[in-house]
Amino acid sequence: MGRKLLWGAVLCIAAACLVLGPASSFAEEKVYINGIDANFPPFAYVDKNGNPDGFDVKSVDWIAKEMGFKVKHQPMDWAGIIPSLKAKKIDLIASGMSINDERKKQVNFSIPYWTIAQVLVVPEGSSLTIDELLSNGNKVGVQRGTTEAKWIEENLIQKEGRDFSLVHYDSAPLAVMDVVNGRIVAAAMDDAPAKDAMRKEPVKIAGTFGMEEEEFGYAIRKEDVELLNMINEGLKKLMASPYWEELKEQYKP
Amino acid sequence: MTESLIAIYDALPYILKGSAVTVGLVGGAMLLGLILGIFLAVGQVYGSDRIRPVIGLYIWFFRGVPLLVLLFLFYFGLFPLLNINLSAFTVAVMVLGLISAAYQSQILRGAILSLPVGQLKAARAIGMSDRRSIMHIILPQALRLSIPGWSNEYSIVLKDSAVAYALGVMEIMARAHFVASRTYEHLPLYFTAGIIFLTLTYAGTKGLRILEEKVRIPGYSTR
After folding, report:
1. Which of A12, A46, A84 sits opposite B182 (nearest CB)?
2. Which end of chain A is more exposed for a tag (fewer CB within 10 A), N or C?
3. Taking residues A150-168, what's their average pLDDT?
4. CB-CB: which of A75, A77, A86 is closest to B166?
5. Does the distance separating the beta carbons of A201 and B28 come in below 8 Å?
6. Contact assessment for residue A67 and residue A233, using Cβ atoms and an 8 Å cutoff
């Protein structure tokens, strides 16, 4: 009796592992895996049916179709996304990633496809200026592992010695929620998710805070030069096609 | 209110798919913890002086380090260093299982020690070897006595499994968070995640209760 039960349990769990474990590749052709931060609307998120969607997701789908390769989008944690790329768990990161020198040491970037400004999101009724927000010991929210988190820490807090503190969040929307809840006076983020938040929550953009504009690119492993060339070619074609305008219209980044 | 209900209705199938992942995490971890836990418990009770401190060290380590630290240590630290490429799901099962083994071994050790010492003596007296006595006399009784403790452990592992979201495992919590990021309906979505966890806790502990009744030894009732 006990033995039967145990074997039953073993079989059940083995079956579960087979079903849920790493997808075994029966396919002959290579499927590239694009790692996304699904908490980053409008560039990457999951739609109502749980399928990856967003400006970047649809862009990569178009490029894959155009260049004749298969792609799968894999939601994952942003803070660990570059280590995951380097560990070959994913092949590409197309998820609103800012190009900067520090990341360039670790990965190759495609040609830039989007320019983004970093802004402060505040409650709708707030009348504080940027300088007032970043003083008086205020708390300002930011997403962990982002370029703006690093820049604010290094420039505004360490170099300029401004009197405010950073609160780190898992995602931009969670930082927005705490702006709405009044736990922090503002949240620093890219302007696209900020605009997305404005459409859904009682918040507004107070303005920029001195950080230079950045460009988004797709990140690819250093050794995957062929993939980089293929992506770049596809991206150029996409940006020259009418579909590019449709994407902008649809996702309003 | 209607908006909240619509948000839940829309997201439910997607989040429920996550419960399959959660059940896989918990099932795998509990099984790994059980197999390893049996060895640890038997080693601790009957092992030589050389093996006991090693087991003690293992238990001290896995009971003393927070789950999140262990997950990151293994997933981003140890395995990449050794060039082992495992999925986030697999690593989460392993880490949850290694921790659970430490706890389950203590549940089992208590059960083994609660058996009358005459049981082992009697087994030896009819000519059974040490190994056979433990396999056929001690463990069948001790495992039965461990079921109430397991049901506790099951609910702990189940709740801990939500932390695997930090590695990007697509379990219940990760999915609720993704939908909340799109819709900004945080309250209804995390509430839904909570209800699903409650249901899973209830179903599991209930199942173990039934199992306990089924395999009960007369005269050894735990109630």
Report:
1. A46
2. N
3. 94
4. A77
5. no
6. yes
